[in-house]
Queue: 3 jobs
Job 1
Amino acid sequence: MSPTLSRLGRRRALRGAAAAVVALGLLLWWLAPWSEQPPGGAITVSTGTRAGVYQKYGELLRSSLGKHMPDLEVRLETSDGSQENVRRVATGQADFAIAAADAVETYRLHHRSDAGRLRGVARLYDDYVQLAVAPDSGIRSVEDLRGKRVAIGPPKSGVRLIANRVLTAAGIDPETGIRPSSDGIDTGPGRLGHGLDAFFWSGGLPTDGLKTFAEQSALRFVPIEADLVAKLHEQGGATRHYRATSMPESAYPGSQLGSAVPTMAVSNLLITRTDVDPELTEWLTRIVLRSRDNIGAHVHSAQLVDVRTAIYTDPLRLHDGARRYYRSVKP
């Protein structure tokens, strides 16, 4: 073997050894017990409707926090959804909440004094807009909703915010162009064909509140095409957080007949307030990331929580405690 090849071999070996050491170090860090004493006290977490993903995620997160922070009391409060959650955190009625980025931005644009206290903890997963109708419905597009009985979600929900914007982009007045209903994920699916022609939902995939109906082929999803998302962007403001995408065919196999459905998505954020204790927030951020697999076993969309993307909490700046955590795990 030539000296040159020998040197190349040694360099490759050294690089491989260095990579192995780094990988081992990360693995040991991940598995190592936490040496410091976790903070205690009590926090309130605002979630969502009982059949929605926010509530399920909140319940599982509370369980994880209970294992690692036994002196912390976690109170969960149901809500209409994102809009109410943002308001509760901003005004001090809750310490943490999950909210869609568009709802956070909307609150910031209309309540600048309170909104200045809001901070991000982690970007969690994406909500997909799901416009559902009965299988035999003649509704094939958003434009076909004109004059129909449509559930647009509770007044303080993120669904209501999105539904109104989608309808407006399609040229339909949300108040006069349809017969609106406040049904949410808890009641909407069961009323299709029995008082409702369609309902909007925005949530992680799949949403348990829709899964049973979908498996029984009791639903069909109406596409929200990319050109409509482009019209949404023309509305300005918080609509920049919407992106065109598709619901994969695996989301609700019984209802999608092996086909992806064009739609739009928006990211969900775990949010808090500037005055919440940094040490507590650092611990909570750590547990959110380390509990991904356990929570993801029950909330499929939570499997996408990742330290590389969690740090991007636009439109909010990171809370000091969350920033401290991300710096501690930066490669």
Job 2
Amino acid sequence: MDNDLRNNYCVILAGGKGRRLWPCSREKLPKQFIDFFGTGQTQLQQTYERISHIFPLDHIFVNTNIEYVDFVREQLPQLPPDNLMAEPIWRNTAPSVAWAAHRIAHINPNANLLVTPSDQIVFREELYRKNILEGLDFVSKNNSLLTMGIRPTRPEPGYGYIQVGNPADMEDVYEVKTFTEKPDREFARMFMESGEWYWNTGLFLCNLQYLSVCFYKFLPAVLSTLDEAKPNFTIEEENEFINENFPSYPNISIDYGILEKSDRVCVMMCDFGWADLGTWHGIYEAMQKSQDDNVVISSDVLLDESHGNIIKLPEGKLAVINGLDGFIVAEQDNVLLICKKEDSSALIRKYVSEVQMKKGNEYV
């Protein structure tokens, strides 16, 4: 492996509203800033610690919304001030990555970049580190976007899927045939059985020179006007420019805006024990089960004749539950949710919208 490690950078995306874990994750305090499992660390802190074993601390950037800046500063006091990027308005991941790439390219035009969500769990960290370093080495030598794929262990409709194509010029790396976002359960089962489809972890790597080409080609290059006006811009000038111009960025994900449009996308087959902690169902699948297949998260519960549930209640509250199978029971502040666990992501999105419309923002 001859990639110069000094060229490796990472951006952690931590600006989402976390609505898929409603009501425990709320717009004022979303999931990435919560110690959800009572471990003493939030999801953001766990992600940062995992990444800090691979990258120098001054090469790790955190992208968030301006509403959450204080949470990031409080939870990551070691983060250099210029490595915290606060967006003035909610947009999807493509604008976030475009800005991070712009800032890092200004520091090091030869940089290779890892983009990671802040709400994942990794069970085999040594393998994770090995795969990330191999991936960075691959993108340092290839003008290609590289995603990380995990072989499905169940027909999960809440995840994105990647169809594997021809082998690329590195072991366990293949060209991507297609992306499919959140299929229904029957398609997810077919994908799993075919052996051709992998879960899309949301982790992706690239060299910044090629990523810049992709952004110029597929998305409006809003930041190029700053480069033309002030090629030697300061961080303060860049922040000012973002505050004025970020709202004109399209509200589009990096997957849809760049990865699905590029003809040079590869996937690395990984096995580092991964789960998305952004959904109730994902958390249920990732956690250790009781004898009756229940997952109880930091809660005081008496369960009787109840199976396959996930339960999270506030401290100081006791629940007695009889005869419940396959449900989410979650309470936080002024909301109690009791909802079928299967395909709950779509249901919760619907309920959050309905509650916001009928009851107002205080419940969201």
Job 3
Amino acid sequence: MKALVLTSKEDGVVFNANYPQPAAQSGEVRIKVLAAALNHRDVWITQGQYAGIKFPTILGSDGVGIVESVGEGVDSSWLGKTVIINPNNHWGDSQRHQSKQYHIMGLPKDGTLAEFVTVDADKIRLAPHHLTIEQAAALPLAGLTAYRALFGRAQLQAGEKVLISGIGGGVALFAMQFAIAAGAEVYVTSSSEEKIAKAVQLGAKAGVLYNQENWQKAFVKTYGEMDVVIDSACGNGFAALIDVLGFGGRIAFYGGGQGAINGLNPQKIFWKQVSILGSTMGSDQQFVEMVDFVEKHQIKPIVDSIYALEDGVAAFKHMADGAQFGKIVVRTVA
């Protein structure tokens, strides 16, 4: 089969037209992939920033496709159904955190950037009917990450004010769309006026350039204090996010692209009763809740660009460049 394969540390991801096809084992289904989507995780793996990297590996945690065959013990009624894939493996029983055995599809097990993939039958769900193939492919990982950070960790309520940093990435955009659908008042940050303008067109109230000095002071003066902040960068800019929170504010972060958090003033945190909440992916239950939420509110993922599987290396470069607004999708069929 055709696949995008992480071949070696030196060669990175390579298009392979003759990779071995998987077969559905007991309890599994084999899916003919129609489209997959990239996440920053995929790029970071190619840069050696994950533990347990192995070669060769097919990356990709997001995917939509048609169930082509089923393994022993799997209901045959799944055959021919168009499904999306829950990328969780071994989350465990707790809703508070994942198990120590937890891993995400696409490493160590082969992922979705291929013509075929096998997954446990309990990891599939019918693709929402209101979504295109590309939109459905874009949903799983980023949608689940945003849903848990926003509702599971920050406990966002209707009518609250929420600031979402670094708008343009898949998770940030889902967080914005979900918060708007939940009845929150949403604001965004970016280093790009163009991305802020696009976010406002999609329903955000306003945005601010985070690369302007002391942006947080003018922001609070103009828009007031926030109840919730959703962040993925951390680093030296994290302290400014604390400044925009009001009493009882919550900040949930799901990444640390800018590195260690420096310069926090503990007095501000304890006096304002601020909660700082780490968040990773989401439970299997939250995946179900997230897809239900998307269907209820008819939310459509924002797709930045679409590549053919043969051009997948260019898709990785586009992700690494960081200029996208929405999800980067790879189609495996013409």
